[in-house]
Each structure stands twice: as C-alpha cells, then as structure tokens.
Fold:
Amino acid sequence: MKRVDDFRLKLGKDELVPIMIGGMGVDISTAELALEAARLGGIGHISDAMVHDVSDRRFDTSFVKEKTKFYKYNINNSDKTNIKFNLEHLAEATRMHVGKTMEAKQGKGMIFVNCMEKLTMNAPKETLKVRLEAALDAGIDGITLSAGLHLGSFGLMAGHPRFREAKLGIIVSSLRALQLFLRKNAKLDRLPDYVVVEGPLAGGHLGFGDDWAEYDLQTIITEIHQWLQAEKLDIPLIAAGGIFTGSDAVSFLEHGASGVQVATRFTVTKECGLPDSVKQEYFKASEDDIEVNHISPTGYPMRMLKNTPAIGDGIRPGCESYGYLLDGNGNCAYITSYNREVALHPDAKKISVMDKTCLCTHMRNFNCWTCGQTTYRLKDTTRKLADGSYQILSAEHVFHDYQFSTDNQIALPEQAA
Ligand SMILES: Cc1cc2nc3c(=O)[nH]c(=O)nc-3n(C[C@H](O)[C@H](O)[C@H](O)COP(=O)(O)O)c2cc1C
Structure:
C-alpha cells in the first residue's frame, strides 16, 4: 500500500515531500509553522496579509501605531478615500517578515508566501507590486497568488531579477480560471511553476458559490490534468481542500496531482498562530457548527464556525489602522453596511451588523474563525485530557502522519505528560 512518502513533488530541479501547508492569514500560518514544513522537506507558507501588524507583533515595530496616528483625524469620518498605505513601510514590513523567516530556514524544503489579491489596500496595483517585489527581494522561495484572478500579477513582477528564478504558483478552483490566467499571461513567456487546485471543502475564502457542495475536487483535478496533457503543458497540480489523511493524499497523488496542500489539520498545532482557546473551539466543533456565509467584504463566500465572534459584531470600521480591503476608491462593503446600521439606529450605543464583517479587525484579533469543512474531524486526531480539553499537536506529528500513514489511519500523539 502506497504512502505519501513514496512520491516526490518536482519543482524544476528540486524534489520535495509533496506536502504543502497552505497559507492562512492573518498569521495563522506563522513563520514557525512554515519553518517546520520546510525543515521536514515539504513546503510551508507564510501569509503577507496585514503584514504591518504581523511585523509589529514579531519584531516590535510600530507600523500600525504610526498609521493610526497619521489618520487619527479621520476616525469619525465615514469617507475613507484618503486612507492610503505608505509604500515604503509596506515594503519594509514585508521584507522583515519574509527575510527573517528565510534566515531561520533549515532543511531541504521551501517557504512560500501566500499573497491574496483581494487585499486591495486602497491602491490595488501599486500595493500588490510592492508586496510581490519586496517578498522576492527578501529571498522568498516562492509566491502563491490567491483570492482573486491575478490576471496581471505576473506582469507586476516581470521586471524583478528573481521573476524567472523564484517558484510562482496560482490557486484556481476551475479549469476556466486557469485557462484565463494562461491566456492573459501568454506574452510573458513564463508559466506558473505549480497550480494549486482548491476544491469546495477548503478553509478561508472559496472560489465557489452557495452551490459549493455540488463540486468535487477530484473531478476538477482530472479535468485540468487532462487539459494540460492535451496542451502538452507540464505544470504540477497541487490538490487542496478536505484532504484529511495520508490515504486521502495518496489517492490524489495517484490521480493527477503532484502534491497536496493541507491546512485544517495544522490549525490545532502548537506552531499555528491561533490562540489556544480558539484551537479548542476548532477541536470541539461538530459538522453542524460549520457554515459557508457571505459576511466577508471581499465578495467571496467564506467558511467559518457559526459561533465566530465576528458574526453580527458592529465594530467601527478600523481603516485608519488597517484598511486592507479598501477597494481603491475608499470603499469596503463593511463600511456601507456599518453606515446603514448607524443611520437606522442613530441613538444606539452599540449596533449589530449582520450581513458583513470588519474582516481586518476581526482576523487581526483571531475573532473570525475561518476553517475547513473537515474541522469537525479534528477531535479524532488527538487525545482528550483529564480537564476535558483536547491535546494540542505538534506540526511535526501532523506532517509525519500525512507523510507515513496508510489505510486512512490517523496516528494519535503521545500522551501529554
Ligand atoms: C484557518 C484557515 C485560514 C485560511 N486562510 C487562507 C488565506 O489566507 N489564503 C489562502 O489562499 N487560503 C487560505 N486558506 C486555505 C488553505 O490555504 C488551504 O488551501 C485549504 O484550507 C486546504 O484544505 P484543508 O483545510 O481542508 O486542508 C485557509 C484555510 C484555513 C483552514
């Protein structure tokens, strides 16, 4: 019986354990988690979402404080057009986050950065270019472009000296999205080094609508794989979404995928950035506790736990400090919803906003509990402790379980002392 370790992911000349830990912003896929994946011979992702805040936490910088001070005058103004990111600060924060992570890298694996196009930062092109180029400057092994179509992203970094050397990949959920990307980028003569095919069971934002349950990852992979073969395009496919055991992974590796991207099982590891109390919420969840909703201002459906504190919260938009979802004209769907509720309840001390959430503030505070569909199975991957809580795992344990297990087995951790 095959196990994941019988396969290798070939990216150019490099051969890796075909396990990628997916990017999870904001700092849920921490540098520590990504470094473990690299040390073990696979690929780990950090995320550049809200990188100023991540830098402030990791390196004691004060990017967010400075921005808040600069735009303090605007806090009670519902118009956010003037809120802009200082591009030098953005580059500096990205270089710190990426550079310090790369300095700490050990082992034969790689570290990529997950870059979400939907973080439009009130100047989509300018800020994205800075993010991509600063990550390349700081020596990142690769960039995974996610959440958005990214039709122009390769072009934005085409002038960078590392454009053809670093591994560049995209996340798609359909053959059509991949075809569109390849067509739009044909003139650059630079194919993606890998394509993550994300199915409907993934965590975070989804590339599907409310009919997500009608789609199936293996069917999408097969369709893309056959098309690539017909076009004589040799691009490794990485299967993502709902791959819970080593055997699940082997099944994809035997049917068109060259690697897997996994995330949910690592949300309950000690290296994951979620607070321990939130990890316990993930362990406790049952299938009925998970939903796909539309509260993300990005316009993409998002999967999360139903008891997520962000749902219904009516906090004042935090754009003077954050503003990562401002669309380029100072708009964010949460601001519109918030302003509507304020106008409807002029005397209320506290308002509730049900249809959208202030994603920046809530992700930053780990109050938006986005998760994969298989989260309800996490309790079966560990031991219950005497106090009723669940034992937190190590990233190494989960990685090795994917790498070496057979027969849909899940290895439990050694009993905590
Ligand atoms: C908590 C959480 C946060 C996530 N955040 C992001 C993100 O910021 N960007 C992204 O491209 N994908 C994100 N994802 C998707 C993962 O990178 C990955 O592709 C997917 O969840 C894999 O499926 P699995 O969770 O069933 O293993 C997130 C997933 C989880 C569970």
Summary: The chain has a mean pLDDT of 97. The two ends are 34 Å apart (CA to CA).
